[in-house]
Amino acid sequence: REREREQGDRQRDQSSLYLGCDQGQNDTEPIILEGKCLVVCDSTPSSEPAGNALGMSVRSGSGRVAFSASRQTNHEPTDMSNRTMIIYFDNILVNVGTHFDQESSVFLAPRRGVYSFNFHVVKAYNRQTIQVSLMVNGWPMISAFAGDQDVTREAATNAGLVIMEKGDKAYLRLERGNLMGGWKYSTFSGFLVFPL
User: Fold this and answer.
1) What DSSP character marks residue 167?
2) Are strands 30-31 and 38-41 parallel, antiparallel or unpaired?
3) pTM for the whole thing?
4) Which long-range contacts (CB under 8 A, 24 or more apart) does 75-84 make?
5) 171 and 135 in contact (C-beta within 8 Å)?
6) CB–CB of 154/146 below 8 Å?
7) DSSP strand E in the chain: where?
8) pLDDT at 1 (0 to 100)
9) Reduced to 3 states, what is the DSSP secondary structure of residue 111?
10) What backbone torsions phi and psi does residue 2 show, to the nearest 5 degrees?
C-alpha cells in the first residue's frame, strides 16, 4: 500500500506540470515553471516532433532580440576619429538581449535568422546630399539618400529584412556628405523576426 501511494503521488506531481493548458487559457499567456525553461501552451500544436510535446512548446526564455537607439549629441562620424564612418547612436531606447553595443553602435547577431532593420538619419541646414547605408559585415545591404538643397531638414530613411548568421555585424555608415545635428531626430532600430 505504501508503494502504491508513492506511485500515485508521483503521477499526480507529473500531471500537475501540464495543468493550465485548457481551453480557458489565453493562447499567448505563458505558464512559468521553476527551472530554466519557459513553457507556453499552444492550442494549435505543430506536427514537428522536436520542440512540441502534448500541445506545449518549450523554448528558451532569452530568445527575444530587439534594439532601438537615437543620436543625442551633435557629432560627425569624423569628429570621433572614425575612419569607418560608422554613425554613432549614443542614446539607447531599447536593448533587449543587449546585442547592440552603444560604444561602437554595432549590432551583433546572436543567432542565425531573419532580422528587420530600419533607420532614419536627419541632415539639418545642410545643402549637401547625404547617403546612409545599412552595412552587414562591411557590405551595404540597403541605402537611403537625402539631397534636397531647398529644404532645411531632410531624412535618409529605409527599412528591410536581412538574413544574418550568428556573429554577423550590422551598423549604419555615412557613405556621402556630413551630418549636421542629431538631437534625437536620427534613429536606428532592429529586431529578430524569427530564427532559421
Assistant:
1) T
2) antiparallel
3) 0.65
4) 75/182, 76/178, 76/179, 77/174, 77/179, 78/178, 84/173
5) yes
6) yes
7) 30-31, 38-41, 52-53, 56-59, 66-70, 91-96, 100-101, 106-108, 113-124, 130-136, 139-146, 153-164, 169-176, 187-195
8) 64
9) coil
10) -60, -45
Burial group, residue 192, by CB count within 10 angstroms (0-12, 13-18, 19+): buried
Q: Which residues contact 48 (CB under 8 A, 6 or more apart)?
A: none
Exposed e or buried b per residue across 108-121, where buried means at least 16 C-beta atoms within 10 angstroms of its C-beta:
bbbeebebebbbbb
Task: Give 96's strand partners.
Answer: 66
Residue spans of the chain under pLDDT 70: 1-62, 74-83, 124-127, 149-152, 180-184
Q: Strand ranges (DSSP E) for 97-138?
A: 100-101, 106-108, 113-124, 130-136
The amino acid that residue 153 corresponds to is R
pLDDT of residue 181: 58
Give all strands of the β-sheet with 130-136 in edge-to-edge order. 100-101, 106-108, 169-176, 130-136, 139-146
Start-to-end CA distance of the chain, whole Å, equals: 52
Q: What is the pLDDT of residue 105?
A: 94
Domains of the chain with bracketed CATH: 2-59 (no CATH), 66-195 (2.60.120.40)
The rounded distance, in Å, linking the Cα atoms of 155 and 135 is 18
Whether residue 69 contacts residue 101, with contact meaning beta carbons closer than 8 Å, is answered with: no
Q: How far apart, in whole angstroms, are the C-alpha atoms of residue 172 and residue 67?
A: 14
